[in-house]
Amino acid sequence: MLRRAVLVLLWPCTALALPAKPQTHTPLPAAAQAGRTIYFANCVGCHGLTVQGGLAPNIRRAGQVPLESFKRMVFQGKGLDGRSLNLTMPRYTRGFRPHLGRKPTDTELKNLQLYLRTVK
Fold it and tell me: What is the CATH number of the domain that holds 76?
């Protein structure tokens, strides 16, 4: 009888602990998915799983800058103000992993920026 009373009292609390509806993730457009692949192969170790920063700063805003500025960040390690970014920032002049050996294309850089825009 006591066990039943405890269950009756606790039942509303368990309902509060459950999410109201399951969370669903909107699929990314193909270009942003390609950018996500680049991000997770090259950037995630320093900038974090959700681009929130870690060893390196949050780079969500990098998705909003003009392509030429983004190229300067990626190839030369220079910020919007022209100052050098952290010395540990790789210079991707030889390409993104796993395709090292050629300079990243504008399309790859745009895809990476598209992915950065999708991260919440």
Answer: 1.10.760.10
